[in-house]
Design brief:
Number of domains: 2
Mean pLDDT: 96
CATH architecture of the largest domain: 3-Layer(aba) Sandwich
Largest sheet: 5 strands, mixed
Distance between the termini: 46 Å
CATH superfamily of the largest domain: Carbonic anhydrase
Structural class: alpha/beta
Order of helices and strands: HEHEHEHHHHEE
Shape: globular
Length: 183
């Protein structure tokens, strides 16, 4: 697979196909979007929002969840706000998310089947990580988005003038539903 990717990339660069994507590091619309890494959203999300390359800072992870108030997602948002002139944050979850009703014990069994030992799980617990909480899913996309919005709005490093919205997208049609208005 990597050989195919590198071959395509070489042709892409040689033919200067990148030129249509050239933009600044500063988002044109001053928006950061936290969304899920779901493959159905790769092209659908920007298309459904009318976005083009350079319009927004796009942060993707499993479930569009902030699992730690000082983890990489919050760091990315803080940098986007203070260094890249973002003044709006959109948290966009989606229906039929893989994180919805994710069972931590099932994931742990899959890990064990692939060679992760009980000693590793004990070490993680020893390090103070609540593994069940870190790896758990959610029951409602809407409630998960609201929880994430609340964490951003109440974070001590996020200025009060930043507008944070929570939305849920249909991964088939792209239809958006606003579940949390900016304060």
């Amino acid at each position: 697979m990597i050989d195919e990717i590198l071959k395509y990339n070489k042709e892409f660069v040689e033919k200067k196909q990148y030129e249509v994507y050239v933009s600044s590091k500063f988002p044109n619309k001053k928006i950061a979007i936290l969304s899920c890494m779901d493959t159905r959203l790769t092209e659908l999300l920007p298309a459904a929002l009318g976005l083009k390359n350079g319009d927004v800072k796009l942060i993707k992870n499993a479930g569009a969840i902030i699992s730690s108030p000082f983890g990489s997602v919050m760091r990315s948002l803080v940098i986007a706000i203070y260094e890249l002139k973002v003044d709006h944050v959109l948290v966009i979850g989606h229906h039929d998310c893989g994180m919805q009703s994710l069972n931590c014990k099932t994931i742990q069994e899959k890990m064990k089947n692939r060679g992760i030992t009980d000693e590793t799980f004990k070490f993680i617990k020893y390090c103070g990580i609540d593994f069940d909480s870190w790896l758990c899913g959610f029951s409602s996309a809407e409630e998960s988005v609201k929880t994430t919005v609340d964490m951003i709005e109440n974070h001590p490093l996020i200025p009060k003038d930043i507008q944070v919205y929570g939305l849920v997208i249909d991964p088939t049609t792209g239809r958006l539903e606003c579940v949390s208005e900016a304060k």
